[in-house]
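Hey all, sorry for the wall of text incoming. These are the two entities for the joint prediction.
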Amino acid sequence: MEIRIIGVRGLPEVQPGMDLTPLILRAAQAQGTPLQENDILVVTQKVVSKAEGRLIELAGVTPSHLAAEWALQYGRDPRLIELALRESKRVSRMDQGVLLVETHHGFHCINAGVDASNIPGSGVVALLPADPDASAARIREEVRQATGAQVAVIITDSWGRPWREGLMNIAIGSAGIGVLKDYRGTTDTYGHELHASAIAVVDEIASAAELVMGKVDMVPVAIVRGYAYTPSNGRVRDLLRDPQRDMFR
Amino acid sequence: MEIRIIGVRGLPEVQPGMDLTPLILRAAQAQGTPLQENDILVVTQKVVSKAEGRLIELAGVTPSHLAAEWALQYGRDPRLIELALRESKRVSRMDQGVLLVETHHGFHCINAGVDASNIPGSGVVALLPADPDASAARIREEVRQATGAQVAVIITDSWGRPWREGLMNIAIGSAGIGVLKDYRGTTDTYGHELHASAIAVVDEIASAAELVMGKVDMVPVAIVRGYAYTPSNGRVRDLLRDPQRDMFR
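and here's what came out:
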């Protein structure tokens, strides 16, 4: 069994209001790797946010006292902290210079994913897409209409995690693929039933795709080809743990 | 840029004391994908633990009162819980039927990684390797001696995480590759300095490899080919966050 991970280069600078899907299809075609049936198209959050106009000029943001005081204490930009708080429904940790929140989507991430990297000019930041699962579903449908190919789409961002240094790329939105590969109830090679073995395949695919993306090389899209999955209506939203079962609030 | 992830099939059942590296080299050769210079060899923990004799018969384990009472409450095997406690240096959470510990290695994982799946017979469980970085270094050196090829080696296991359902495959040991790809101090395409962007590439490679492994198909080894990395002496141990900076103890 073999899987290929193909980086897609050559996208132009994405501007608010641009149609992202044709840009991706054209770039993939131009480098000789057009999208095929059952491919998994992995797209970084930043280009999706740009196309969807989720860019904010910091100059127009007035920080609250909370944002201003905390940012001052840790040398952060108070306007970015203000935006992070506005994008949140709960602050999980606000300590050691780290603002970890639960976003309106239910994601646990630093600064609510508000980020200034890979945006031209200065003083502009990007918010996460308002509904990344919906963004993925839209791209999937646009690919189908333009090419006839059924693909899966995963939108990704790189986040930290407890206990380990380093970010990992994970899925924030998906369409056309089950988010979990569930081994529960099946048996291993030796006939033992597997109890706790649902694998978060969309997160693993996001991580795999990051290996060809790189943060400084302008490769915001990857194609994962050869992974056998059953098309389904999986959403990243359904991966989020029920707060009742969350031991790390 | 393209990366290939190749599953390696055809390993025999690994018994305690067997030399694992020749079995891997032979299986890769037999399926027509012999190891090459700069490949990354990804090996699941279970076959490493088996080769290193880290198997325990539950019949010989006497649970403590703590293990017995807690296991009874949640319908767990008290002998497995006892082993998990013995493999731990700290209990992080012991709630809702979940035993999350910090292992002697410093890993945060459920049941200290003690697990009964993919082991022939019944009543036998595997512990994690005693020093997975050392296991990876040894396999790397054995590959070099047998083939002349310099490869990187990553040993993996599938663990849960806070906030999201589903396990992800991550690195528990590595050799020959830097564990972090550090973008800090570099600039993005637009000249902004990247501040918080060290990527845990060994974890991402582990996740990528899981996509060809599968829990029920007897594919305990994968080759990741085409990923440009700088050979270095990275150890997973160096990824573990300093407890002083850990907000989730």
